[in-house]
Design goal:
277 residues; 2 domains; 6-stranded antiparallel sheet
Amino acid sequence: MYIENIEHFFLETPLYQKFDIDPDDGELLFDLIYFNDKIDCYCPFCDKDSTFIGTNKVPSFGGFKNDSFADMTRHSGYGIDYFLNKIHAIDLYCSRVEEHKMQIIVYITNSHIFKIGQFPSIAEISQPQLKKYRPVLTNEKYTELNRGVGLITHGVGIGAFVYLRRIFEDLIEEAHQILNKMDGWDEEVYTKARMNDKIEILKSELPEFLVDNKELYGILSKGIHELSEDECKEYFPTVKLGVELILDEKLEAKKKQDKIALAKKSIASIRRDIKDK
């Protein structure tokens, strides 16, 4: 696996996930270790969205300024070997309050790079993103969503998949409880159906994204029963995104229903006022 996006590596990649590197990755490692760009994310100290700025200075080999890996190589004579078999700390600070820090710690071998430490944790950074789903999750399922993200923060991939699958199953059961009260419902057919078929049966009460991407359940189940910890950690950001998109649809539907209920109540109130005049 290859690091495609440094921001994603900082904010989404679980601890101890292994990424391949090769002799041509000097520029990537230079940009990562001496990160001086900006990333937008939640600051748990400010309790607000913010921008974090890298503060990692490149050594001035021979007194020369080095803005790239090519500059460093030219001025120092070092190649990619300069980064290998070492632990590197990458520091950033919050643009709102400079004392609010973020640090990513990586270990680079001859062939791989690992994120071995992070503060604040992925779970802490993800808090506001997860909080918005409280209106469409029970307290139990909201806790499980947080636990799943918390486990991945500590490098536990299979356990994190378990919690995401439980949330997925709860969404299916919620739709089941609505439709099994309808005339013509065949509980026996539903009970015997495989998950993909159950989703088709329930699709009128399920978010469109879930129906169109029903294979997400199979991925979660395969992760729990067949995939390795490393594979689950690699796939977790994608399956988490899928679950979030399903919850986003439910959240939008709830907001619409709340608006409709408010509008009906207000219209009824106006009609009463008009009738009394």
